[in-house]
Design brief:
By secondary structure, this protein is mainly alpha-helical. It is about 60% helix and about 5% strand. It is globular, with a radius of gyration of 25 Å.
Length: about 500
């Protein structure tokens, strides 16, 4: 085994170790993770919230036991593979050992550590962007048409994971037109590759068509409830923060792609980032949507810096350049990860506020970062629902109806009973079991929706009561109430079916 291979394995091992060390046992899973895990129980070619790839991974996790270890392993694996692809890109650019170590260090000690904590499509999305850029690099270097087909396949897999990868093409295609590489549009192989990509993603497109393209409804909701609060200046500012320890390397890549002679043929990359970022800014995208852009530029920057720092006194700067991402990671370690108790975060809130971490998607500042607050209270909710469920008569004919997908997913993940919570929110609207004759209802209501629940629902049941609530004051679900309605006087199934039809008609 060569020294290079040993060093690469060292980086990958450190990546896995850090991902598990950066998450305190104080926290549960995050609300999105519960939804993604539940998709394994409802395999399909599409969902309201995401394409199908995440559900396939969730199914594998379920086969492995569905434990926290396996849930957290996969995003860490995707992060480790991102380091590996950047390493291979540096080798393709003829980078030396210093360039390899610099590139791996920059990718390791970056926003990917935060991103790879959560089991969401984002980790694989960044990997997909990095692989697709790498394939484009290989095509430019070799002019081998096979890379067009490989690229189409990778794009299709990335598309089936998250539609965000379309923005990569939005940046890349006009960039080709601005350079000598525009001749690619005259090659029939390009169009056969496009056809291959369309065939691979067609099951998802057919699913979208058969379900009236819910992706557009989801994007509309996203724009109205979250993207409306996106500040374009904050978007640009946060691009600098994601790879703050690697800025010298990223900016070096921009200079090199413009003026460094060995990189002349890779000029489309400099135009691509401009077009892609412009598209993100125009659509008021969330800042982390753009993270997948940067790993490949770290490869270019590392190779360029290795060339200009290889001789004389400049060689003494090599350890300094490598040390910068590590040194800057130290203060970030104290604020960017859920490795501190909520009480600590509140006592040191200014440190978090300065970085904008207390601002939620509603545009307001809160006690904890949104992701952290979204990782509290779920186990408490599930255990209390379990307790209520066990106390009911005819409990097998009980419907557990939640206000949001986080509540439903958490109950389904943690519950000790054979029960399945549902919601009219997100994908759960398609997962109601209407074959049962429901007699009881356990209703989970968000704190701002509880006041009228007893008054509105109790007339339809023999017994009605508030059976509990979420008491973790740091949780985003703090105050969420658990209502028990026993002995239905109405046809619950018909009411549910009517509500589902109404929601779907609106969709």
């Amino acid at each position: 085994m060569t020294r290079k291979t040993l060093i690469l394995l060292g980086f990958i091992s450190l990546k896995f170790i850090l991902q598990f060390l950066l998450l305190s046992s104080e926290y549960n899973l995050q609300r999105d993770e519960y939804l993604h895990l539940d998709q394994a129980n409802h395999l399909a070619w599409g969902y309201l919230s995401v394409p199908p790839f995440t559900s396939w991974t969730s199914y594998i996790i379920q086969l492995l036991g569905n434990s926290i270890f396996w849930i957290k392993l996969f995003p860490a694996l995707y992060g480790a593979l991102t380091i590996f692809i950047v390493w291979k890109a540096i080798e393709e650019l003829n980078g030396n050992l210093f360039a390899l170590i610099l590139g791996a260090t920059c990718v390791l000690f970056s926003a990917l550590l935060r991103l790879n904590i959560l089991y969401q499509p984002n980790s694989f999305d960044v990997l997909s962007w990095t692989v697709l850029y790498f394939i484009f690099l290989k095509y430019i270097k070799t002019d081998n048409l096979k890379w067009l087909y490989v690229g189409a396949t990778v794009f299709a897999i990335g598309f089936l994971n998250k539609y965000n990868i379309v923005f990569l093409l939005i940046g890349l295609l006009p960039s080709l037109l601005l350079t000598k590489h525009r001749k690619i549009f005259l090659k029939p192989s390009l169009y056969f590759a496009v056809l291959l990509g369309l065939v691979l993603i067609s099951p998802n497109l057919i699913w979208q068509y058969n379900n009236n393209f819910p992706v557009f409804h989801h994007l509309k909701q996203l724009a109205e409830t979250q993207l409306i609060n996106v500040n374009r200046f904050d978007f640009l500012k946060n691009q600098l923060l994601f790879f703050i320890g690697s800025l010298i390397v990223v900016f070096a890549s921009f200079y090199a792609l413009l003026f460094y002679k060995p990189f002349n043929k890779y000029r489309p990359f400099i135009y691509s980032i401009l077009f892609t970022l412009t598209a993100f800014i125009y659509f008021k995208a969330k800042d982390y949507y753009a993270i997948g852009i940067y790993p490949i530029y770290i490869a270019f920057g590392s190779v360029y810096l290795s060339d200009i720092l290889k001789d004389g006194w400049r060689k003494c700067l090599q350890p300094v350049v490598i040390a910068v991402p590590i040194i800057l990671f130290i203060p970030i370690y104290n604020v960017a990860f859920p490795n501190k108790k909520p009480e600590y975060i509140i006592q040191h809130s200014e440190n978090y506020k300065k970085l904008g971490m207390l601002r939620w998607e509603d545009g307001k500042d809160h006690l904890l970062p949104q992701d952290f607050a979204d990782m509290l209270g779920w186990k408490e909710l599930a255990l209390k629902v379990d307790s209520v469920y066990l106390s009911l008569p005819n409990k097998n004919n009980t419907l557990i109806l939640c206000d949001n997908y986080g509540q439903a997913g958490a109950i389904n993940y943690y519950t000790q009973q054979k029960i399945k919570a549902v919601s009219f929110n997100a994908d759960y609207i398609d997962w109601f079991d209407l074959t049962k004759n429901y007699e009881n209802l356990i209703r989970i209501k968000e704190s701002n929706e509880t006041d009228n629940e007893l008054k509105e629902t109790s007339p339809f049941f023999e017994v009605s009561l508030i059976a509990g609530s979420i008491t973790n004051k740091y949780s985003r679900e703090y105050g969420t109430s658990i209502f028990a309605f026993i002995g239905s006087k109405i046809d619950i199934n018909k009411r549910i079916k009517d509500e589902i039809d109404e929601k779907k008609n609106y969709r």
